[in-house]
Write a structure and sequence with these properties.
heterodimer, A: Alpha-Beta Plaits, Alpha-Beta Plaits, 2 domains, eight-stranded mixed β-sheet, two-stranded antiparallel sheet, 23% helix, B: alpha/beta, Rossmann fold, Transcription Regulator spoIIAA, four-stranded parallel β-sheet, 18 strands
């Protein structure tokens, strides 16, 4: 391995239903189709050196997924970005590729301290959502349960939540064309959640809102990870985790 | 009906189901064509879960060929799991295609590929979810033509009342021909309506339209005759055979799914047909004659498929791949080309001879030598003569000894239980063979670190084979023999630990037997099973023998009569009007030969037209050698 490249990619639209395993298979094939000189592990059954950091859950879209590729021949990050993106199915889109800095502080996974999530709740009532959010934030802890591979697990959904805000989009008609359905009102939750163990996911927060205030949106939420990275004290949101790789680089 | 995408409605259900990715489409190399620009539209179904159906070669080939035609589109649909089925019913979402999520009922044809009869209940679910009437006679011009293909379509009688049409044999050319018949019929303003179209298809002689045939029964329940019930409909329907496979190098653009499927590889069919003459093998009988792809086309298809898909494994498929006339050159050429890459090659290796190990050695250059598979099929010398599997015990021991001494650690042996004339001693012979295999392996390697796995399937007599007249073995006998064999292996102190044993109980084989050799009266059983909740009968966790027996009793079908009853020579069989080219007298003679342990040669090496296929179908064996070689791939 002569070089490590860090990749930010998005999982969009219907491809949000891919699991972590689906994505890793798709990536390995895309890398092969694109003739990217990926390095392989030694041993009996060699595996391509691609490592993934904190994948978004199945069903959740993301604008900020990260992985690292080790290559056996030096690659231009811009070229790799274009080749890999062209080779992946539409919906798995490569957004950014940087050279991993020689002596960058910490590995990539360590820099991903928190995520900014957006949950769109179609048909939910903005006032009810606002009240639920206030109750949630006021609670010292919000115990929830989730079915994991190890069975039902109970944990606190409140502590990891750095911020939680609610915005609404009022129900509007489009241009009033006959026959068109009115667009339903939509509640948009934005939450910054620290990556802790056990991991608190947006659906845990939504479960918490239901438990503290009986808030239950009428249809399944549409959730997107907008960013992940080191928690910026100024903005209160995750910053670009690749910024330290760019310093000193030629970009 | 509207062909608008159902995706927005489906999407709301997906967070609530297992593995939602299987329903969203978007596979690499999948095709979505403009609905309005097409005049003939096919929905292609593989009636099992996506993970099984997506890799199916037949569906992938037809999907690609039809989409290459102008003004024609093809999309795919698969069986949905019960969790999504329940939600679709609750929300009124109909059966959809995965490509553009269009409702299946909006298409002109629903083409269903049946590799096995156990998909029949899944067809019912799909039709019902689609809003297509189950009974063919209840369908209107608003419904697609429901068309069956695949090996099970060589006896579609059990589902005849639910099909509009069936085709036998290779699908490439007949799918195109059907498309053109539909296009003309539509262009002419659909003369005669739905029946007008079915009649055009039936008159061609290449499409079976069950409702144009009446089945008459004798007082004792046997069939008296099957006759066309309107003029112009031929009394026999013939199978289709594609010649010159080099002209049909599909799939060119293999579908690469996002979801995990049962075969994560690129497969190339290196030839079609097989004339080894194994008497139990329906595939070997109905796909005659042998037609090879040439070494150079195989090389091109592999190179293209690897590039287009990104798969790391390539499978060379056929009914007996080691029998390709240039397989040694193919193996060496591909192994040379891909040496040092991460592309691995596999060959379903079932031939019991040393040559097969040479091939396996070539194919494992890039990987480990883990397991080799051989299929003696019968546990005793006599049994193997009955089924015409010409392998002696000596052959087998010599072959496995070579395999073990060349570094292979594991040998898998396939057998069948419940074969015609089988007795307890034939099945117990499997234990003897396995012991001898381990003994020989330990002597050859001086190591105890070798294994042998015995894998046993229940034999089901199939239409268009010499065993089509045979009595199927009852499941009690099969289960008892397997139990005794298991105990014998388990109690063996010396070798038992080195021998693995895999088998299934005999009950599913009885249901498969009922559906394989059933007639139209069996359709009511399938319907009753489906109405009672029967789904995914090929999956042991969903299959219920009791449900099938209960349904058969309710509708008055005697399962034993269809399964464990031997037929006599002149009984009219439900599929006698469906012509695979095999001469009935030859089949009967082969059945008689089986009963007296007489073997038959392979016509590739000892010329013979006795089975009748080549003269009646106008086909010929197409084999090499071509003498050509695979050159190294040039690096771009």
């Amino acid at each position: 391995m002569v070089q490590r490249l860090r990749v930010r990619y998005a999982k969009r639209g219907r491809l949000r239903f891919t699991s972590h395993r689906d994505i890793s298979r798709a990536l390995e094939r895309a890398v092969r189709r694109a003739d990217i000189p990926v390095a392989y592990s030694a041993g009996f059954s060699p595996h391509p050196k691609i490592s993934y950091a904190g994948a978004a859950p199945t069903g959740v879209a993301s604008e900020a997924e990260y992985l690292e590729i080790g290559v056996s021949r030096a690659c231009d990050p811009r070229r790799l970005r274009a080749d890999l993106d062209a080779s992946l199915p539409p919906g798995l889109d490569v957004l950014d590729v940087v050279d991993a800095a020689e002596a960058g502080p910490g590995n990539l996974a360590d820099r991903l301290e928190a995520s900014l999530w957006e949950a769109r709740l179609t048909g939910a009532d903005p006032a009810e959502a606002g009240a639920a959010v206030r109750e949630f934030l006021a609670a010292p802890s919000v115990p929830v349960e989730r079915l994991t591979k190890k069975g039902m697990r109970a944990f606190d959904a409140r502590q990891a939540v750095h911020s939680l805000t609610v915005a609404g989009e009022a129900g509007q008609r489009t241009d009033g064309t006959a026959g068109q359905k009115p667009i339903q009102s939509c509640v948009i939750l934005r939450m910054v959640v620290r990556h802790e163990t056990p991991a608190v996911r947006p659906d845990d927060v939504l479960m918490g809102l239901r438990l503290v205030a009986g808030f239950a949106p009428p249809s399944p939420p549409s959730v997107t990870r907008l960013a992940q990275g080191p928690l910026d004290a100024m903005t209160g949101e995750p910053a670009d985790p690749l910024v330290t790789d760019r310093v000193g680089g030629d970009l | 009906m509207s062909a608008e995408s159902l995706f927005p409605r489906l999407e709301a259900l997906l967070p609530k189901v297992q593995k939602p990715i299987q329903y969203v489409g978007g596979e690499l190399n999948s095709t979505v064509k403009d609905w309005d620009e097409a005049t003939v539209r096919w929905a292609l179904m593989y009636p099992d879960a996506y993970e099984v159906g997506l890799p199916n070669q037949g569906v992938q080939i037809l999907y690609e060929i039809l989409n290459e035609l102008p003004e024609t589109l093809a999309e795919r649909t698969y069986a949905v799991w019960p969790d999504l089925e329940a939600l679709m019913r609750a929300e009124g979402v109909p059966q959809f295609t995965v490509d553009a999520h269009r409702p299946v009922r909006a298409f002109d044809v629903l083409g269903v590929s049946f590799s096995t009869e156990l998909g029949y209940t899944n067809l019912f679910t799909a039709l019902d979810l689609a809003g297509i009437p189950l009974e063919a006679v209840a369908r209107t011009e608003a419904d697609p033509i429901v068309l069956a293909g695949g090996h099970a379509a060589f006896n579609p009688e059990p589902i005849a009342d639910f099909l509009d049409a069936a085709v036998l044999g290779d699908g490439e050319q007949i799918a195109i021909a059907i498309t053109e018949v539909i296009r003309e019929w539509k262009a002419e303003g659909r003369p005669g309506g739905r029946d007008g179209l079915l009649l055009r298809l039936a008159e061609s002689g290449g499409v079976y339209v069950p409702k144009f045939y009446d089945v008459e029964y004798l007082p004792d329940g046997r069939i008296q005759r099957v006759v066309p019930n309107r003029p112009g409909v031929p009394s026999r329907v013939f199978k289709h055979t594609v010649m010159d496979l080099d002209d049909w190098p599909y799939p060119k653009k293999p579908l690469v799914p996002l979801a995990e499927t049962v075969h994560e590889r690129f497969s190339v069919e290196i030839f079609r047909g097989c004339t080894r003459g194994c008497r139990f093998c329906q595939a070997g009988m109905i796909t005659r004659p042998v037609r090879e792809r040439s070494i150079t086309v195989i090389g091109d298809m592999v190179a293209n498929g690897v590039k287009e898909s990104g798969f790391t494994e390539v499978g060379l498929l056929s009914l007996s791949s080691a029998d390709h006339s240039e397989i040694a050159e193919v193996a060496k050429g591909l192994a040379d080309r891909y040496e040092g890459t991460n592309t691995s090659l596999s060959l379903p290796s079932t031939r019991v001879d040393a040559f097969n190990i040479d091939l396996a050695n070539e194919f494992s250059r890039n990987g480990r030598r883990s397991g080799l598979t051989f299929a003696p099929e019968g546990g005793s010398e006599r049994m193997r003569k009955v089924i015409n599997k010409m392998v002696t015990e000596e052959d087998l021991i010599r072959t496995v000894t070579t395999a073990y001494s060349q570094g292979w650690r594991q040998v898998k042996l396939y057998f069948m239980c419940g074969l015609p004339t089988e007795e307890d001693v034939d099945v117990m012979g499997i234990a003897d063979l396995a012991r001898k295999v381990i003994k020989a392996g330990r002597e050859a390697t001086g190591s105890r670190d070798i294994r042998c796995t015995v894998s046993i399937g229940g034999f089901v007599p199939k239409p268009h084979t010499p065993f089509q007249w045979a009595a199927q073995c009852d499941h009690e006998t099969v289960d008892r023999r397997l139990r005794e064999l298991r105990n014998e292996l388990r109690n063996d102190k010396q070798y038992g630990k080195a021998i693995g044993f895999r088998y299934h109980d005999g009950k599913p084989s009885i249901v498969e037997g009922l559906l394989s050799r059933g007639d139209r009266r069996v359709g009511r059983v399938i319907h009753a099973v489906w109405a009672d909740g029967g789904r995914f009968d090929g999956w042991s966790e969903h299959f219920s023998y009791e449900r099938w027996m209960k349904a058969a009793a309710e509708v008055g079908v005697d399962v034993d009569w269809y399964t464990i009853r031997e037929r006599e020579e002149h009984e009219v069989l439900p599929w006698d009007h469906l012509d695979a080219g095999l001469d009935r007298e030859w089949l009967w003679q082969d059945w008689q030969d089986a009963l007296s342990d007489v073997e038959v040669e392979d016509c590739r090496w000892t010329p013979c037209y006795d089975c009748g296929v080549c003269p009646s179908m106008g086909t010929e064996i197409q084999i090499g050698p071509t003498g050509r070689k695979l050159l190294p791939l040039t690096v771009v």
